[in-house]
Write a structure and sequence with these properties.
0% strand; 5 helices; mainly alpha; single chain; 434 Repressor (Amino-terminal Domain)
Length: 69
């Protein structure tokens, strides 16, 4: 999951359905892409413009430490 994408969407008060409409895709497709990051260039550009941020910020992934103790 991309925490900054989620945060920016909440900051603007946009639902998944509204985001999907802005990107020209179905809500289910948007939710799937939000999990796997499989957005195309046009969709990425639209989100960067909408949120007024850069790619690396928007798609920063949470890093988890899976070391065995």
């Amino acid at each position: 999951m991309f925490r900054n994408l989620e945060a920016e969407q909440k900051r603007l008060g946009l639902t998944n359905a509204q985001m999907a409409e802005k990107l020209g895709i179905a809500r289910f497709t948007y939710e799937s892409k939000k999990k796997n990051g499989n957005f195309n260039r046009a969709q990425i550009t639209a989100m960067l413009n909408l949120f007024n941020c850069d790619f690396f910020y928007l798609f920063e992934q949470e890093v988890t430490d899976n070391k065995a103790s």
